[in-house]
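Work Package 4 report. The design task specified in the project plan requires that, given a folded chain encoded as structure tokens, an amino acid be chosen for each position. We show below one input record used in the internal validation round.
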């Protein structure tokens, strides 16, 4: 598999690290206008660093555009004459629709829009994917790329904005919950570093329990709530203070905001 990452910035480098560690690429072209910050990738024999997007595009089977949305139109215009129908075109640019990409390069190309999150750098991204009609032929290949960075799920393009809130913004939401738990643990007498470790591992354990058992969260809650015990006391107090409600309201506020940004 020959892959080009056009715009190897923060997310592009995370994707590159995931692909290299899974050893799923035979050649990996990384582009940036200034490639100095990519020098550490030189130790991988599969990697070619270049500031020339056309060279990378011409040599790859899969091209991942990981530039900021404001740069994407111009870059696509510059390389579109090189694109071949058998290549898979992937864009991770937030809010940049498949229709907009088709308007520049044409609908005859396989186009996939992907929304990973920053956990791609530790290969734990939740990535949502959508494709154009032609791209359906290569969606499994796109899933292979993003499964090397965590877990991927195909969804309709209309749901990508919602997925951005749940998965990309979601990283921040979960971070805040972990921080709040840490603050609570410090109040109960733990050192900050200990409190942080307790909060992180308990969060990780809770998610792993659900993933491995397939259980509903309430089933796992039932297992740890003794009648009249301390867990249900704390949980009910959190709900009286609006825990679930505030999360749902926050998710809806983010969704409203992302839709406003899109239509500006
Ligand atoms: N970070 C995330 O968690 C995340 C999650 C989902 C989606 N996204 C989307 O992913 C995209 C990239 O995000 P990011 O955080 O990785 O941004 P970033 O760090 O700014 O990376 C973009 C890179 O593109 C390069 N670039 C700019 N113009 C270029 C050109 N003409 N040719 C080649 N490279 C060029 C820039 O490097 P030079 O200045 O050296 O060229 C920069 O390093 C964005 O569209 C963002 O919306 C990000």
């Amino acid at each position: 598999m020959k892959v080009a990452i056009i715009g190897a910035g923060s997310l592009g480098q995370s994707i590159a690290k995931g692909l290299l560690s899974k050893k799923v690429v035979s050649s990996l072209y990384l582009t940036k206008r200034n490639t100095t910050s990519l020098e550490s990738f030189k130790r991988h024999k599969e990697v070619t660093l270049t500031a020339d997007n056309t060279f990378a595009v011409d040599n790859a089977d899969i091209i991942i555009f990981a530039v900021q949305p404001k740069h994407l139109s111009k870059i696509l215009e510059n390389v579109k004459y090189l694109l071949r129908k058998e290549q898979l075109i992937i864009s991770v640019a937030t809010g940049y629709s498949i229709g907009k990409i088709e308007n520049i390069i044409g609908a005859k190309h396989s186009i996939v829009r992907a929304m990973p999150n920053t956990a791609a750098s530790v290969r734990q991204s939740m990535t949502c994917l959508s494709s154009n009609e032609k791209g359906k032929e290569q969606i499994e290949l796109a899933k292979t790329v993003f499964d090397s960075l965590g877990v991927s799920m195909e969804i309709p393009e209309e749901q990508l904005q919602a997925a951005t809130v749940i998965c990309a913004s979601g990283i921040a939401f979960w971070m805040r919950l972990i921080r709040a738990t840490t603050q609570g643990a410090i109040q109960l007498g733990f050192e900050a570093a200990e409190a942080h470790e307790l909060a992180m591992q308990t969060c990780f354990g809770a998610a792993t329990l659900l993933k491995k058992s397939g259980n509903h969260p309430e089933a796992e809650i039932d297992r740890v709530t003794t009648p009249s015990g301390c867990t249900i006391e704390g949980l009910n107090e959190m709900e009286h203070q609006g825990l679930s409600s505030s999360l749902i309201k926050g998710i809806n506020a983010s969704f409203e905001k992302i839709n406003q940004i899109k239509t500006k």
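The domain at 164-263 is CATH 1.10.3730.10 (ProC C-terminal domain-like fold). Validation will be extended to a larger panel in the next phase.
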